């Protein structure tokens, strides 16, 4: 797994939570689903929880998830 794969992981986590989830829910989903890949990802293993926040930021700029102002505090939401 590489950093650029985290965007797909964030989308998968949000889809698994009906399009809306807290950062903790996203992180738990990613860990449960991709634990093996993360453990063998080298340095990403130590930074992935930080890196998913950057992935979410890129997804916001791409219009895939809602802007911070449009979601409840602490939630990430898919744009539908």
Description:
With 80 residues, the protein is mostly helical. It has one domain (3-77). The protein is built from 3 helices and 2 strands. 19% of the residues are buried.
Total count of strands? 2
The order of strands across the largest sheet is: 1-2
Strand content: 5-15%
The structural class is mainly alpha
Mean of pLDDT: 97
Radius of gyration, in angstroms, nearest whole number: 12 Å
Protein name: Restriction system protein Mrr-like N-terminal domain-containing protein
Q: What are the main properties of this structure?
A:
single chain; 80 residues; mainly alpha; two-stranded antiparallel sheet; 3 helices; Restriction system protein Mrr-like N-terminal domain-containing protein
Write the layout of secondary structure elements.
Layout: H1 6-16, E1 20-22, H2 23-39, H3 44-61, E2 75-77
Antiparallel strand pairs: 1-2
Could you provide a short overview of the structure?
It comes from Trabulsiella guamensis ATCC 49490. Helices cover 57% and strands 8% of the residues.
